[in-house]
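Example S7 (C-alpha cells).
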C-alpha cells in the first residue's frame, strides 16, 4: 500500500449501470488516491461491471456477505482506508476531474476540517471529463463545526474529512441499517470547521425519485428521526453549547411534526413546550413516530 492523500470510499448496492463510471472517476483523481468499493451484497451485475478495473492496484473491493445498509458500508470502507483523508462517494455518483487536487491546492484542507461538496445535476450521458475543476472556494463555514448538525442538511452529497476525525469518533456510531444521514452530523462535533464548497463536486443519476422507493422510503424517514435523536444525545454527552443543543432539539421536533402530518399519525399533541420541559417524553414520542412510520405499508 502506498502513502495516499485520499481514500475514496464508494458504496455499492445494485449499481451495475453506474459503478464503473464512479470508480473510473475516482481513480482519475490521480496517483495520490486509493479507491475502496464496498459492495453491500449486490444481487445484480455490479461485480461484472468492475471487471475492467481488475488490474488496478489502487482499487480494492470489499464484499459484504449480508446487506448492511449505507452507514455500515461506509464504516467498513473507512476502517479499511489508509489515506490521510476520507472521501464519501455513492455508487451512482461521479467525481469531477481534478477536484481533489484543487482542494489540496486551496488551503482548505485541515486536520480539524470537514468539507461538503455540492451536487451537479449533469446527465450521465454527458462525458464528465469535459468538466474539469480548476479551483474550489468555500461557500460558507460552520464554526464551531457542530453548528452544521443544526441545519439537518447533512445528507445527499459527498464529504471529505481527515481519517483522524473518524478514528476519534469510531466507537460512537449507532449502527443504523440504511441511513448514513447520521454520519456527517456526528463528525461535525469533532471538527473546528465544517465547510460547504462553491464548486460542485459530483454528478448524480438523473430521474431519481424517493417516491419510487416504497417501503425503503418509510424506513429512511424512520431512521432520520433516530439519527436526530442520536446526534442530540451526542451533543449532550459532549456538553456542547446549550444554545446548539436547543437548536438540535428544535430541528428534531420540526422533523417529527412534519412526519406526523405526512403519515397522519395519531399521537398526543407534541408541543414545543413539551419538547423542552421533558426529555424522556420527547424522546419517547419521537421513537413512537419512527415506529409508526416503519409500520406503514
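Recovered sequence:
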Amino acid at each position: 500500500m502506498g502513502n495516499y492523500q485520499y481514500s475514496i470510499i464508494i458504496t455499492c448496492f445494485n449499481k451495475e449501470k453506474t459503478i464503473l463510471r464512479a470508480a473510473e472517476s475516482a481513480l482519475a483523481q490521480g496517483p495520490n488516491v486509493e479507491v475502496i468499493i464496498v459492495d453491500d451484497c449486490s444481487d445484480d451485475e455490479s461485480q461484472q461491471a468492475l471487471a475492467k478495473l481488475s488490474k488496478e492496484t489502487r482499487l480494492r473491493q470489499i464484499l459484504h456477505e449480508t446487506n448492511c445498509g449505507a452507514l455500515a458500508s461506509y464504516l467498513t470502507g473507512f476502517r479499511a482506508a489508509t489515506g490521510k483523508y476520507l472521501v464519501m462517494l455513492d455508487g451512482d455518483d461521479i467525481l469531477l476531474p481534478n477536484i481533489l487536487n484543487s482542494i489540496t491546492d486551496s488551503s482548505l484542507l485541515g486536520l480539524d476540517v470537514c468539507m461538503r461538496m455540492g451536487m451537479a445535476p449533469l446527465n450521465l450521458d454527458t462525458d464528465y471529463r469535459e468538466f474539469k475543476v480548476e479551483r474550489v472556494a468555500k461557500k460558507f463555514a460552520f464554526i464551531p463545526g457542530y453548528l452544521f448538525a443544526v441545519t439537518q442538511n447533512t445528507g445527499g452529497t459527498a464529504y471529505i474529512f481527515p481519517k483522524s476525525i473518524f478514528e476519534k469518533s469510531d466507537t460512537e456510531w449507532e449502527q443504523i441499517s440504511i441511513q448514513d444521514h447520521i454520519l456527517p452530523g456526528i463528525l461535525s462535533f469533532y471538527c473546528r470547521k465544517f465547510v460547504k464548497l462553491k464548486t460542485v463536486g459530483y454528478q448524480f443519476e438523473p430521474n431519481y425519485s424517493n417516491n419510487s422507493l416504497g417501503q425503503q422510503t418509510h424506513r429512511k424517514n424512520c431512521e432520520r428521526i433516530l439519527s436526530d435523536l442520536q446526534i442530540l444525545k451526542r451533543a449532550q454527552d459532549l456538553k456542547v453549547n446549550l444554545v446548539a443543543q436547543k437548536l438540535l432539539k428544535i430541528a428534531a421536533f420540526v422533523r417529527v411534526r412534519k412526519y406526523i402530518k405526512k403519515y397522519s399519525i395519531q399521537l398526543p399533541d407534541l408541543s414545543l413546550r413539551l419538547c423542552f420541559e421533558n426529555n424522556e417524553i420527547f424522546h419517547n414520542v419521537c421513537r413512537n413516530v419512527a415506529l409508526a412510520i416503519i409500520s406503514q405499508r
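Notes on this example. Residues 215-237 form the longest helix (23 residues).
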